Amino acid sequence: MTIKDTPEEWEIRATDTPFVGNKTSVRTDDVVMPDGTVATRDYQVHPGSVAVLALDDADRVLVLRQYRHPVRHKLWEIPAGLLDVPGENPLHAAQRELYEEAHVKAEDWRVLTDVYTTPGGCDEAVRIFLARDLSEAEGERFEVEHEEADMEIARVPVADVVRGVLAGELHNNCLVVGVLSLVAARDGDGLDALRPAEAPWPARPFEA
Q: Which residues belong to the active site?
């Protein structure tokens, strides 16, 4: 059998948006179940995100340490950010995030993987890119604020990141998915066989 996710949408009898925030909102849908009953489902509506696993020539991953208030932790993460503009090209957003958060640019971009972070309670879709052939970006550094003002930057060997993930010491979703996907791709058809950076993304359609 072929294992592949497929789009599907069940009937919605009623919908409401009880909360609207700065970037996200909460929606309540009355959804018709297969047996004809109606169940209420609450979920966060999210614009989508991009993340970048930046790999240097020494086989190190560029990581950031940032405070995340909802989980009361400082987490090691890879550069990431929201798709603030509807229909925004995710590659352009990823390049912007790598520049703003790490002041780094990359010449080689591939799609590493696409994920729904928490599909039981949020519609957030994330595209994780692999960026290689890194160099220092030109121009002034981006002025950070809020949690990012306390952010640390490091480059850590891939093997050390994998060990931290499997030991339960690293928890950020994009970091975990990204580095394990990197290892799987290397063990499979190789990194050059990954999808091109402009590959279609049905979860968040965009213009090239």
A: 148
